[in-house]
Amino acid sequence: MSHHRSSCLASIPLLLIILSFLLASFFDRAAGQIGVCYGRIGNNLPRPADVVAFYQQRNIQLVRLYNPDQEVLTALDGSNFELILDVPNSDIQRIANDSTEAGIWVANNVRNYIKGVRFRYISVGNEVQPSDTAASFVLPAMRNIERAVSDLGIKVSTTIDTRGISGFPPSRGLFTPNFRIFIDPVLSFLVSKKSPLLVNIYTYFTYINYIRDVSLEYALLTPNKTVVNDGSNSYGNLFLALLDTMYAALEESRAGAVKIVVSESGWPTAGGTAASVDNARTYVNNLIQIVKTGSPRRPERAIETYLLLDFDIKLVNNCSDFSRSRL
Domain limits of the chain? Predict the structure, then answer.
């Protein structure tokens, strides 16, 4: 099942006080599998040192950084956080074409900080689509980055979203033909290196595009009765249904051993249908409980998940720049 976004999600930068309101109750109870995405798009952003201190006060241990911002990496030095660091989409082709460039990138952004920063994964690109110029360069860039960090024990992956999957119920999940051409070689690399696949999952996008069929409670992960029955598995919230659709697609592509890390999830606080601070708080508090116990298809493992909450503008002035189809 695919669709086009029916409306734009406008997310304003969140002040520390609003973020504190959202995070006040759950990080102290987290089992270490929940992290946050540290976005740097916006005006009047807090100093990185203040953000790091804020995260430390709330027992946040996992952080995703979308580009190698030197000021942020310096602030993270000695913090004991574990970090996902992205290779920006704009750098992929250059790194793919020249292993020396990959070595320079790693030297500047990883080796310079390795004594004080714990690098968990490097994500080569974020939501690259098969039609993007960068698509054919993602795997060569992953290989070059992996060679450059092979002595450091850092896993290399890429980040996708749910535009490339279809199928309902979750057990029928599979990659669309165009996306499979792009992702299958990447999955072979991940299997060979025992690296995870990073996936951005937003129930909000499904809700606003299927508002007649998807209840707000199901999208907000509010504990309720079973909504979807799928053989021996049942689903009472949309997040786990989307996650298991992705796992089914991996299995269909002979990559069922690949672990999924949910590299972004969240709910907007303003600017769209059902966007509010209260709904965002409901979503993240429900999510924090859900990811502790895994999904019906993968009940044996907690779900490592990163929340997109802070200081980011997910969709801003030009909605067409972010037009996308998702489950």
Answer: 16-322
Select which of 101, 251, 264, 300 is catalytic. Answer: 264
Query: Residue 58 and residue 26: Cα distance in Å, rounded?
Result: 9
Task: Give the Å distances, CA to CA, from 64 to 103, 145, 248, 288.
Answer: 21, 18, 26, 17
Instruction: Work out whether strand 118-126 and strand 305-310 pair parallel, antiparallel, or are unpaired.
Output: unpaired
Q: Is 252 a catalytic residue?
A: no
Q: Which of 127, 146, 217, 300 is catalytic?
A: 127
Ordered per-residue pLDDT tens for the chain, 327 residues: 333 333 333 333 444 555 555 565 555 545 458 899 998 777 778 899 998 998 888 888 899 999 999 999 999 999 989 999 999 999 999 999 999 999 999 999 999 999 999 999 999 999 999 999 999 999 999 999 999 999 999 999 999 999 999 999 999 999 999 999 999 999 999 999 999 999 999 999 999 989 999 999 999 999 778 889 999 999 999 999 999 999 999 999 999 999 999 999 999 888 789 988 889 889 988 999 999 989 999 998 899 999 987 433 443 332 333 334 445
Query: To which CATH superfamily is domain 16-322 assigned?
Result: Glycosidases (3.20.20.80)
User: Distance of alpha carbon 305 from its chain centroid, rounded?
Assistant: 7
Q: With beta carbons less than 8 A apart as the criterion, state whether 195 and 149 touch.
A: no
* DSSP code string of 241-283: HHHHHHHHHHHHTT-TTPPEEEEEE---SSSSTT--HHHHHHH
**Burial environment of residue 225 by CB neighbours within 10 A (0 to 12, 13 to 18, 19 or more):** exposed
Residue type, 95: I
Alpha-carbon torsion (249, 178, 158, 50), positive or negative: negative
What is this structure's pTM? 0.90
- Element containing residue 118 per DSSP (H, E): strand 118-126
Q: Does residue 92 contact residue 138 with C-beta atoms inside 8 Å?
A: yes
